[in-house]
Amino acid sequence: MAYRPDEFVTAGFRDRFVVDLPDRAYLDGNSLGRLPKATADHIQQVVTQQWGNELIGSWNRHWLPLSRRIGDKIGQLIGAGPGQTIVCDSTSLNLYKLGFALLQQRGGRSTILTDSGNFPSDIYILEGLARQISKDLRLQLIDLSVAEHQEVSHRLSQAVNEDTALVCLSHVHFKSGYAFDLPAVSRLVRDRGARMLWDLSHSVGAMPIDMAASGADAAVGCTYKYLNGGPGAPAFLSVRSDLIGKLQNPIQGWFGAERPFDFSKEFTPNSSIDGFAVGTPPILSLSAVEPGVDLVIEAGIDGLRERSMALTEFFLNAFDQRLARLGYTLQTPRNPALRGSHISLGHPKGWQITQDLIHRFSVIPDFREPDTIRFGIAPLYTLASEIDRAVDALESSILNQSYLDFSDSRGGVT
Ligand SMILES: Cc1ncc(COP(=O)(O)O)c(C=O)c1O
After folding, report:
1. How many CB atoms lie within 10 A of CB 414?
2. From CA 340, how far away is CA 201, in angstroms rounded?
3. Facing residues of 198 across strands?
4. How far is the CA of 222 from the centre of ligand 1 (A)?
5. Residue 199 known to be catalytic
């Protein structure tokens, strides 16, 4: 094909990441983003200078403002103003805290609604909330996975009603890559008097998000995918400005208190977004988040989205020309407006093919049960040539039946 997405944007951004094995096609930046070179330098400095040298003095000098400062930067990427976002805890824990807080405002409503194909941890958290908060609350799972856009809208419109207290969805579906129409869904939920909580894990850093314009109540998301914050990096949470101070964190820890260092016996909640913190932040992991977020801001989210769409389109063309006839199915929407930044292919031998790709061809996708081979396109650093390599490997694995060299038994992280 004539158009090569690498001809535009990259502009040196890939060179700002550690790429030790140039022959490896890394298409898993939607699970664990690459290491920015600036992060390695920064962490070295945090360890040796801030911890090693400045010791306890670093809390006031460097560390206490971090959760908010990085939160505000992430806020720029999701359309939240300063003071609405903090980085703390895991995505799951943040979902629990915000879900609990929003459900305190449910009035007489008794249903929590989510997609039956949502990320399992989100479903577990919501189910736990329903059980723990009140016997009148129940979790309703509706199947929104891989349905056509019109059908998704129809099913949502049917399901959200005067009994719906909270709707919680992942903006981009972790398997199919389907991107919900965040403004339209938020509007629908709001118009029906329910609360809207988004999980932005698979969209933040890869596509523009405007939480303020959408009117959604709150959002959570992780920082280790397209934000390149590193393994186990703390997540973020964000709350609509007029709800800050009205929503209350169910976990009363000292970092969520008004004046933690008064060591008061009485808990007075912090009425700013800091009220959603709980305990001491993991400073090394937290520090590692900032350079990755800075890179995304510097590159510009609109340009990144453009590049992401060009690269996913490039993959789809190759799928049509070379893979569809080999038994692969496309699980990701063709309409670029309806997809995030990964491409998912189905194949009954998906697990074995994934192992073949990794161990024979040095192409790194991941696998999601039962049959999904998932390719993350990280627009800051993924090259079209890496996609070419993946397509070559997918083709060869079937044509030469080389996937048969790998066992069908599952195990470990993929
Ligand atoms: C959409 C989504 N939500 C939640 C999580 C869980 O995040 P955490 O482990 O930070 O709780 C993930 C993890 O990959 C995810 O993809």
Report:
1. 18
2. 11
3. 169, 219
4. 6
5. yes
